[in-house]
Amino acid sequence: MKALKEIFSSVFNTLVILACFGISLYIYLAIMGNPINFMENNPKGHPLPGNYLGIMYKGGPIVPVLLTIVLTLLSFVVERFISLSKANGKGSVVKFVRNIQDLLKEDKIEEARALCDKQKGSIANVIKSGLTRYRELQNDPTLAKDQKILALQKDLEEATALELPALSKNMVILSTVASISVLTGLIGTVLGMIRAFAALANQGAPDALQLATGISEALVNTAFGITGSTIAILMYNYFSSRVDAMTYRIDESNYSIVQTFAASLK
Fold it and tell me: How far is Cα 36 from Cα 41, in angstroms, rounded to an integer?
């Protein structure tokens, strides 16, 4: 089942990236490259003064690649927001953990499990798994106290290990985008500067059109690359902090469950 989920996730991610590339290509050719954005309705000429779509079109063939990177980034940012919101559950996590602790002190295991079903999310899943084992171990006469505590700890650790991959899912894509966005932008910058210097190298008067196109290509690609990388780094750090906070809450609740369980044993 886990292997099938990983395959489905990989296929889905690939389809998202391909869809972003198709959208980017359409934006570049049909919108940015629309003749109305250029003097004399000629995309090979100068863009109209102040027309940023035409200026971005002059960024060259690297532009749709950078657009793909930015759209992919935005797609997975939305996915992370949705996934982490679901993992957080329906209500306040702090209040939920406090209520669980109060119910455990009163040995109301069934009520605590019902509260987990109501809360949902990763923390609730881990706690519910531990509570299921909690009651079984309490009533198990074959195990010593230390064995029961270790068994509960192991069950909570296994449940936590199952939830953590879902919390950090697709984070590698954000970190990858942060790196390749600026590098791709630099490639476009270098290509633009090559074109600009080639225009200056002409004998006689420099080719003004080629010079302007080369400079536009360099600057547009630099801007796209830096923008994509900046957004990716900010989002990666934001989501990492949210995952760390949720992991801390899970560890805190696990510790509380184990301590309460140990105190309940005679």
Answer: 5
Global pTM reads 0.83
Q: Are 219 and 230 spatial neighbours (Cβ–Cβ below 8 Å)?
A: no
State pLDDT tens for residues 130-168.
888 887 887 778 888 888 888 888 888 888 888 888 888
Each residue of 113-132: b (16+ CB within 10 Å) or e?
Answer: bebbeebbbbbbbbbbbbbe
Among 137, 166, 124, smallest CA distance to 254 is for 124
Most confident of 104-108, 185-189, 197-201: 185-189
* Residue whose pair of structure tokens reads 């900046």 in the numeric block: 230
Residues with Cβ < 8 Å from 71, sequence gap 6 or more?
20, 23, 24
Identify whether the C-beta of residue 34 lies closer than 8 Å to the C-beta of residue 53. yes
How is residue 188 written in tokens?
């476009």
Radius of gyration (C-alpha) of the chain in whole angstroms: 28
The first and second tokens of residue 1, run together, are 């089942």
Residue 164 CB-density burial (10 A; 0-12 exposed, 13-18 middle, 19+ buried): middle
